[in-house]
Amino acid sequence: MDQDGTETSEYHRPVLVEEVVELVAPVIPGVVVDATFGGGGHTRRLLNEFGEDVTVVAIDRDPEAQANVGSLPVSVIQGNFGDLKTLLDGSEQNRPSAILFDFGVSSRQLDDGARGFSFRNDGPLDMRMGPDASSDAGEIVNGWPEKDLAGIIAKFGEEPMARRIARAIVASRPIKTTAQLSTVIAEATPAARRRAGHPARRTFQAIRIAVNDELTSVADGIDDAIDMVAPGGRVIAISYHSLEDRIVKQRFAEGATGCICPPELPVCGCGVTAELRVLTRKPVRSSATEIEANPRSRSAILRAAEKVAA
Ligand SMILES: C[S@@+](CC[C@H](N)C(=O)[O-])C[C@H]1O[C@@H](n2cnc3c(N)ncnc32)[C@H](O)[C@@H]1O
Known about the structure:
The chain is an alpha/beta fold.
């Protein structure tokens, strides 16, 4: 299934995988951190391509990701990539050559109704990616004041009907299941808007982002990755909505900014040097062929940057 719950026929088909292989190739042999192991699709492809020349260090917030390792020569470190520095051995000789992020939730997580991510498969209001999440969806849906609820639906879901939906949720409390929540949202959405995709898609995304504090993890994870990757190494990030992508884009642009002295100064006085070189002047998107084969790739946006050798 798609990030937003759209059905797809296959599990774990990694998104933009050939583009990732191409970006990683120049830093092989080396250690690649797959910070979002999920179903292991990217890791599997990297191991197939580079064999013994690559060592993959896998991370996932979800303890269930370990079950997807199969015969791969990796063990998944369970943790939040927002704590990348703590999760990895940061010693000089172990600095990774590349760090990959493929944000969001996996098809397996979405398809498993019991995890509560999907507005199509019924389940409890959970949506926690891992045990470190501080609340679950039920606490937000049934406990938050209407104003706060409307705020996250507007901000994290970019949902124009946020206030109306929040009002309907509060009026329908207690809401126990994802199916109930989905119905409440659909009924609060004007018929004209219902034609633009599933009416619950944006609200479910918003609640999931809030439950897992996803944008904080993205910002911290990218910061840590830039610090940790070896000089000449690469940070690669695949986002699925503009909120994630904006964080990556801005951080890469900031890292690629050199001297900030006014142009009329004859000599640099600020001492600022660029720590990154952006490798994707334009974000990389999936081809029409990939989107046809894997609808989930439709919203993927890949950016990559190289750490400038000191
Ligand atoms: C889109 S899936 C990755 C799919 C994977 N690249 C593949 O090819 O199978 C995203 C994965 O990242 C994990 N994840 C999301 N946020 C995370 C975080 N902050 N820290 C660690 N893992 C996270 C999710 O649990 C999920 O398994």
